Every structure is written in structure tokens, then in C-alpha cells.
Amino acid sequence: MGASPPSEPGSILDLIGRTPLIPLNRVARGYPYRVLAKLEYLNPGGSVKDRIGPTMIDAAEKQGWLKPGGTIIEATSGNTGVGLALVAAVRGYHAVFVIPDKMSSEKIRLLRAFGARVVITPSQLPPDHPMSHYSVAKRLAKEIPNSYYPNQYENPENPGAHYRGTAPEIDRGAGDALTAVVATIGTGGTVSGIGRYFKDHRPSVKIIAVDPKGSILQHYFETHETIRVTPYKVEGIGEDMIPKTVDFKAMDEFVQVDDKESFLMARRLAREEGLFVGGSSGSAVAGALKWLARRPVPEGSTIVVVLPDSGDRYLSKFYSDEWMRENRFLDEGATAGDLVRGKDVAPALVAADPTTLVRDALGLLQRHSISQLPVLAGKENVGSVVEEEILRAVLLDQTVLERTVTAVMGPTFPEVLEEEPIGEVLRRLKEVRALLVRDPKSGQVLGLLTRHDLLTYLSDRGAHGAA
């Protein structure tokens, strides 16, 4: 008699968990350890937070806190919302998610794709502020009949899901050489649940929490004092308060990483390992390699790093070279002066002075195949001449050609200093059509940068793999 066929899943919720462990072959090259990545982004909703959605709702249904046709309301950075949205879709609930405005547009669209209502609140507000995403979610839960607020920051089913699911999977898959598990921390559910499991079953395994620079959690772990949070851009991890779901006793050490480390590592994971992951996954791997570099770990040890979510919700952010440059995470060495000197036209500066005839200014524009130029009186920036405006004026009155450029002169071009980073140039050129670049030491104008110049530079850099 043949083996019975495997039972088919009853819904998408049955596919949550049992995510694979794979080795990091290139990013961790040179380390005498086996570094395994736990691919939580392969859960059906794209993140580790899928695990806590069903467990929190199961408990609420059992207790009678959520009844058929009710509404699930949660404060989230996006991923917990998706995990809960899966449950709402399968079980016929409504969903309302309150999300800070620093989160990516992809996350907001994803939540709406599941039919959820998304309420966006300002970032960087204290947790007790009436407009914080925590406070708004609590208020909506009081105002909307037959609603349930899971509150992942206090719900014991958050770490419980990882104690019962994620941690045993790691234990079975990593083998006897497992020395440490590294995971990012936000609500604390993942790292606390995993940590409690290993404290109970294999206390020799170290639990390492990775916190973003700007969060208060590492500082509290080390000092038991709170500090004021400072802004950071990586999403879904770190906190401005101490959630009740954080169990510091389940953790052995903290490692802190900054935004740039997180985003560059996430991009490396995509390009070198084929792992299309989010910024917090970059944080986790960067933190793990930092920890390995500073702690004596026996050769041949196995280290597991939890990769929380998918990169598909960050395409408009750190997977965008433009966004990375604008936020000064790429090409920090390149400046406005570098762009002027790298222009493929000569001379770098084509300008008129107030006595130049319109005819001659038009000739300069046509000779150098440009459409605009500054008007300079010595070192002073006094105006601009644009080919389109000259032609418009000539069509009305041909004698304009024999007048000075003051007859057709427009406003001055805004200026940047030579040492201004390319990210700032990119930001400014979104607002204006061209920028004058000035040497702060000599006061001389070095050249004019247009949007075309910047696009040419970025295109050349991309063609040579510089990004």
C-alpha cells in the first residue's frame, strides 16, 4: 500500500512557517564559520510577522474578543499589518492599520491591496502623543464597534509564536554546532521568543539582538535608562519606547548598526547572494558580522541570522540609487565640483555678461549646444538667459537681437558650493532646472549644472557598476 498523499493546506495561513536556512557564501566569505540565513521573507505575506497574525487572532477568537464580521485594528510599521491582513482576508474580518508616514509607499499599497483601510500618522511623535500611531490605533479600537486591537507591543502571542515555531525550526535545522542566533529587535517578539526557547532548551546558544542607531533599546539593555530617540530610516526595527513584549533576559548581547550599513548590506545580499530582502535583513547580517569580528567564536561554529522581510516593499527607497544618493548613502565622495569637472563639454562654464548682445548670447548657446547660460558681472551672479525666451522675444521684435542680454534676462540660477555632496545636488535639481557651482575659496563660478548633466553622470556611473 502506497504512502498517503500529503494533506493539502486549508488556506494560505497553513503555509506560514517552515522557512529554509541557507548559507551566506559570499557576504560571509573569509569567516571560519557557517553563517546561515533564516529566510523569513519567504512566508506568504513576505515577512516574519506572518507568524504572529494567526496566533494573536486565534487567541482573540478563543477569548471572545473578536467576533464574526469584526474589525482588526493595529498599529504597525507595515509587516504585522500584512500578517493580520492575511488572517482578515481568510476569515472575513475588516482591517484598519495605523502606520507612521516614514514607511514605504509599497507597504501602504500592499495593505490596501488586501482590502485594508490604512491610516497614516506623523513619524517621530512620542508614543503617548494623541497623533502617534499607537494612540490613534487605540482610539479607533474604542470608536469602532466589534473591533479588536491585538497590540503586538504587549501581546504575549507575539513572542509565543516564535517560541513555538521559529526557534524550534532553527534548532532542528542548524545542527549541534549552533553557537548563536542573531535577530533584529523592534517589538522584541522575534528575538525574545527565540531567546526564551534557547534559554530553556539549549542555553549555550547566544542570542544577539541588533538595534538600529537612533533606537533606545540597546541603551536600555545596557543601562536600564531611557533616552530620547533620534531619527533613523531603516523600517520595522528599533523603538522609541520599551514594549512589554521585549524580554531582555532572553538576550545575551546587543549590536548597533546604522542606516548606511543596513541598506548597503541589503543591496549586497541581493546582488551577491540572490536574496531580495529588506533593510532590517541588512541590519541583521551587518550586525552578525560585526559581532563575529569582535567576539571569539570557535572555528566551525554555526551562526543563524534571521532575515525578517522582503525587498519588494522598498523598491522606492534603498533599492533606488536616486533615493540612496539623495540620502547620502551612495557616492558620498562625489561633489558638485566633481560633476562640473566631469562634464563632457568644454568649457565647463559658458556665460554672458550684462553688456553681451542678445545676438552673441544666442550664438554662444547654439555653438555649445546648450539651452541656458548665466549672466555674470565679474564674480556676481546677476541673471540668466534661456534660448526659449530669446526666441520668443525675437518673434515679437527682431531688434531685440541688437540689444544687450538685460532685455531678455531672467532670474539668477540658484547656487551650490563646490563641496556640496551629490545627494544635495540631486535634491536641489528636483526643484530647479539648473544650479551654479561656486568655489568658496576664490569666489569664482566654476560652472552650471543642469538636470541633464546629473542624469548623464548617474547613467555613466551605473554603466560602469559604480552603484
Beta-strand segment tally: 15
Structural shape: elongated
Kindly identify the CATH topology of the largest domain: Rossmann fold
Return residue spans where pLDDT drops below 50 for at least 5 consecutive residues. 463-467
Q: Please identify the top-level CATH class of the largest domain.
A: Alpha Beta
Overall mean confidence score, pLDDT: 92
Number of helices: 15
Radius of gyration from CA coordinates: 28 Å
Give the termini separation. 59 Å
What's the helical proportion of residues? 25-40%
- Strand pairing plus helix content: what structural class? alpha/beta
In the residues, how many domains can be counted? 3
**Strand line-up across the major sheet:** 1-2-10-7-8-9
Largest sheet: 6 strands, mixed
**Percentage beta strand:** 15-25%
* CATH architectural name of the largest domain: 3-Layer(aba) Sandwich
Order of helices and strands: EEHEHEHEHEHEHEHEHHEHHHEEHEHEEH
Describe this structure as you would to a colleague.
The chain is elongated and about 90 Å long. It is α/β, with parallel strands linked by helices and 467 residues long. The model is unreliable at 463-467 (pLDDT under 50). Helices cover 36% and strands 17% of the residues. The protein has three domains: 12-46 and 156-326, Rossmann fold (3-Layer(aba) Sandwich), CATH 3.40.50; 48-148, Rossmann fold (3-Layer(aba) Sandwich), CATH 3.40.50; 336-463, CBS-domain, CATH 3.10.580. The protein starts with 20 loop residues before the first strand and ends with a helix. Helix 8 (259-273) crosses helix 9 (279-294).
